[in-house]
Predict the structure.
Amino acid sequence: MIHRVMTAKKRITEAALKLLDAHPDGLRHSQLVLALAERLPEISKNTIVGAVVGLVAKNPENVCKPTRGLFKLLKYSDSLSPAPQTPAKGELLSSVKEEDFYPAFAAYLTGDLEECTKAEPLGRSFFKDKWGTPDVIGIRKARESDIIKFPTEIVSAEIKTDGNNLITAFGQAVSYKLFSHKSYIVVPKESSTEDLDRLEALCLTCGLGLILFNHLRVDSPDFTIRVRAQRSEPDNFYVNRNLKRVEELLFS
């Protein structure tokens, strides 16, 4: 019996290494277990789960977990892994532009998320500030029908169509908290799994919202929320300074 269990674990390990070799971006725990169960139907799922749990500890020279729940071969780790499969900047500029998504996301903020009562595309250097201008900015005001009237909130968003530029998006979204009650990062769904996991962890730590979308389809971007932004109090000086610049846009 012990010999058979050991043999099964060896077969699971060999199959797992082959699967991970075929998936340079790595596989999540559930994906790996499912793939192994399909490949090795004669081995019980409990045995497969046990082998997967100990996969890194038993094979530290081959396998790593760059983030929670993600298994990856060491040869495909940060320094050697291929860049996310996103179109080159030149291709994006000639077909789909980042600013093409601004109106759709403004509508998503007001309609699907109901985070804003009014939202408008902004972008470029509207604020004429080296700290940056949000791609979309919105406000959430109490309606006449609301029994409890809450204070007006400002919501900002940074949209990126380049999956290789997520750390820049994060820094910009953080800077918007200076004058916004909520701030969102909107990035391609096709960004690397490892980068998205790290970005999600940072967003949870800093209270930012994270939304994924199809960066190749302006007509159907399919915005999907992964982390909802948490409300925080901005600096009133910067709130009033920046709102004066968009007063007619948002309050007219």
Remarks:
- Strands lie at 27-28, 63-67, 70-73, 118-121, 136-140, 153-159, 182-188, 209-213, 224-227.
- The chain has a mean pLDDT of 85.
- The chain has ten helices and nine strands.
